[in-house]
Structures are given as structure tokens and as C-alpha cells.
């Protein structure tokens, strides 16, 4: 491989790259959780649309129903397809010094946060997630909202140990903050 | 420790002027939230309308609430020093006590608005660093007392650190070394800054303001406009060009005056001092603001210029520092317009290790981005306009102008966009009409993102984003292999660097 950066003291090709990293899929239950939440969302949306149409004084109600329902159904179909297809793209990996999370079917994003830059970590569980016993691990960095990392779909038994592992690593790697 | 005439150990209230200042602060907050109601009340008030009366009572009620609230706030507010920490007791319904130990205090900033200056008081903001972030602000202190307080805290802090602190702590202790006045915006420089402001932005602000105000005042803006301009309209119909030229000139002049006035208010008598450990900035005409920038907290330095400013050989310097609280976010980015090249160089040399500041190879981005820009800013708008032909008829042709425009946009963007990297620093260059450069130290990066759209994946390209504690740097459309090497190198440097990023 060519080295694009001749002026650096270390050849980036010699650094551990992405090859041979063991990316893990998140828990399949997360797919169920996201499907249930999008179905709920669209049910509420349909309810809202019905309420608006019924309470307004539109004369041609059938037309309004046809238009609004077909739009909602198309949106729902797209959303659900993307959710199902995109699920396989949600993967994470723990390396020696950082944590990686990838996602995105059309726009793929890979976020890497070094352990020594993590400010704190917390586990979150919504009501539907609780039913399926999965958690989201949220890692806060000083980089603000857009660089905080959320890894969803971690089963109860793994989530806590993973959080502890990350925090332990953070402590080992982190420079002391005064 | 010469100023022993102030005893800070006893809990004290602020001077009584503070009531007024707190009151005005409350009042401004209320007015900012409710001014549309007030304006419509004054202008559109009809006698005998019960609805208007109710609103009036609500407004009066709010004013009374403010008055009582600010008086109570004043009486329940105490500050004092205890066990080498500054303590603040406040709260009307819920009492809170904030406590910042001297070692953790990072900056002590004063600011003065018109009222403060009238009564010779300052408002004080004390900012701390570290994991448990907190911040203290005192609305009004007499100037002497504030200075004495600052001197006292700095002296005590130095004393504490010299007794028990580590070498490193000594280095970052509060700054007392002599400082050099690096930049002073003279009236002529201020004028140049005002003239070279982004007038298009002012135009946008004015338009937004006018339209929102009108929307609040009249429910039907269309009716309002046609009511007001019927006469003008019939005249304008026959003199379209004249009307266009007149309104264009009017808008230009207003925007120009607006940005001129704005820069006068904001940057009047701007002074930037530099010392070994940081920078200090004072600026403003009515609102005299003082900001201290700690060298270690600086995350990014950027400088930009536009064609007019370039004529004056001036740059806008922006220093982004890690802020300890979200509330204070506006203070985390400090703009110094009207900096000349040598002043720029001095600041950069102070903030970043100078041995790494040489010139490096400019890595350009993929030319493919030009096609994308033409597609998104040229072809797509034209297609949308043409497909809306039946609605807007011949006007659709004007949208075809987007094609050549987007072509030049793409050319300019690609030509100026590049990045440079060495062991220590990474710099991104960009701009379309002007130029914009951002420089940061690699070990200050907090997270790395590599993004690929569906199109980028096909072309083996990627966009890389680097996040620091005070903003992000993005390098779009570089080869995937290059992005991966960059990602690996940045991560390696971040993970092996034991220096503190703040």
C-alpha cells in the first residue's frame, strides 16, 4: 500500500488497521425493539391524521384519507425496510485502546473513541428495551453531542460488564485530569 | 495579599446596586420572551377588548413577579471565602450552595454593561476546570472589591500550589506573568472591520427580523404588504427597473449600516493581551466584556478572511477553547476581527509548539466533489424549477443560472479545500470567496468519524471528521485508503500521547 503521508515519523500502514478486527453484531432483539417503536410511531401518526381529518370541515374526506394514508404507508414501508436492512450494519468492536461502532446503510458512519478520551459511561434502557432485556451504552466525550457514542442492543448480562470494561480501560489509559 | 481591607470570610451580599442590575436582567429576559405580545398590545390595542385587558394584566403580573423575584434573589444571595474555596449561597425557593476550591479555579472574568459602568461595578464570572465542572457568577460587585477578590484568590492559589502542587500544576497556575498588548483595534481598524463585515449576513438578519415582526403584528402579511404598497405598486409596475434599483440600494445601505453599527458595538476598543500562559481580551462599547483564554484550554485556532478584508490585509482570528459548561458556550469561541498576519502568527506560536509550525505538503481532496456540487447546487435546483414550469412559467429560466454558478462554486471549493498534517498538528484549508483555515493539535482530538455515502463507497472515497472539545474539523472526499491512514495515525497519536488535552 502506498503511504500518503511521507512526513510522519511512523508509516500509517504499520499501525493496526481495521483488518482482522472482530466486529460484533448487536443483539437481534434490538431489531424487534426498533420495529415495535416504528410501528407505534406510525400508529400514532395514523391516529393523528384520522383525528385531523375527522375534526376538520373538509368535504371530500375519502380523498384526504387516500392521500394521507398512502403517504404514511409509503413512509412506514421505507422506514421498516431501512430498519431491517440497516440492522446488520450496526456493529461494534472493542480494541486494545479504543471502541468502534459502525452504522448506516446508505450513509455509513464509523465512529472511534479512544478509551483515554471517554468522560463517563452510562447504560440506558427504554420501556420497550426493558421488555426485551437489552440496553444502550452511552459514552460521553468532551467533543460534545455529535461525537458521543451510543451503542444500542446490548443484552443485560453483557451490558454491565462492557460498561465496567470501558470504564476500567478509561482509567488505565486516561491521563490524570487535575 | 496587600488588600486586607476587604474581609471575604464573612458572608456578604452584593452592593445594593445589584438589585437594579438583577431587575434589569430579569426584565430583559421577560421582554425578549414576550416582546411580540407587547408590540401588538401597544399597536393593535382596541378599547374595550377584554382579551387585550387580560393580556395586559398578565404582563403587569409578570412585571410584579420580576420585581419581587429580583429583590428576593438579591437578599438571598451571599458570597464568601471559606477553607480556600469560594462559596456562593443563593436561591429563593430552593437553596443551593456552590463551592469552588481555589486550585480548581481556572479563570476569573469581569464584564461591564452600561449600567455596571454607571455605578462602577462589575459582574464576575468564575470558571473552574476538571471533572466536576461548575461556575459561579456574581451580578454586581464594586470594582475595587472585585479586583481585591481576584488578587486574593490568585495569591492564595499560588501559595497553595507552591506548597503542595506538582510541577505541572505550578505551570498551569493562574497567570501573573507580565503581559504584552498584542492587538489594539484603533478607530481606523475598527472602521475597516465594519466595512469588511459579511453584509449578506446582516441582510439575512434584517430580513428575518422584518418578516417575523410583521408576522407577529399582522396575521396576514400579504394583506399588510399590499395595503401599504398599493400606491407604490402601481407606480412600480410601470417602472420595474427603477423600483428594483431603489430597493436594492436601500437594502444594501441598511445592511451596510447595520453591520457597521454592529461591529462598532461589539468590537469597540478591542484589546488583546498575551502572556506566557494565555490571552486576555477586552472589547465592546456599551457592554464591556472581558474574556480570559487559558493556553491549555485552547483546542482550535482558526483564521479566515474575505475579499474586502484581504484588501486591508486583515484576518478574523478565532480561538476556540474547551468550555466547562454548555451555558457558556458562546464564550468558548472568541472572535478577534482585524488581526494582522504578524499578530496571528504570534498567537499561533504561543498556543501551539512552534517547532511544528513549518509548511507541510498540501493534500488536496478528490476532484469528484466538483460534480457533486454541480449536481446538488446546479442540476437539481434547475430540474425542480423546470418541472414546476406550469406554476412559475418563465421564471423557471432564471433557475438555469444555478448551473454556471454551481460550476464556479465547485471549482473554487475544490481549489481551496486541502489539509496539512505533521506529527503534532493538523490543519484544514478551505473557503469559496474568502479563505478559512483551521489548526488543531492532534492529541486534543476526542473522537474520529469516517463517513461514506452510497456514492462515496462506489468511488472509494470517504469523509473524515475529527472532534475536539471545542468544535470539529471535517475533511471531505478524500481517497478511502488515505482516510484510513489518517484515521489510524490520529488514533495512534491520541492513544499514545500522555499530555493533557486541557
UniProtKB/TrEMBL annotation, chain A:
InterPro entries: YdbS-like_PH
Transmembrane segments: 33-53, 65-87
Domain YdbS-like PH, chain residue ranges per copy: 90-164
Pfam families assigned to the protein according to its UniProt record, in alphabetical order: bPH_2
Highest taxon, organism lineage: Bacteria
Keywords noted in UniProt: Membrane, Transmembrane, Transmembrane helix
Keyword Transmembrane found: yes
Name this protein carries in UniProt: YdbS-like PH domain-containing protein
From TrEMBL, chain B:
Domain YdbS-like PH residues, every copy: 74-153, 268-329, 417-489
Keywords tagged on the record: Membrane, Transmembrane, Transmembrane helix
Membrane-crossing residue ranges in chain numbering: 17-42, 54-75, 241-265, 371-390, 396-413
Annotated InterPro entries: UCP026631, YdbS-like_PH
Name this protein carries in UniProt: YdbS-like PH domain-containing protein
Biological source species: Roseivirga echinicomitans
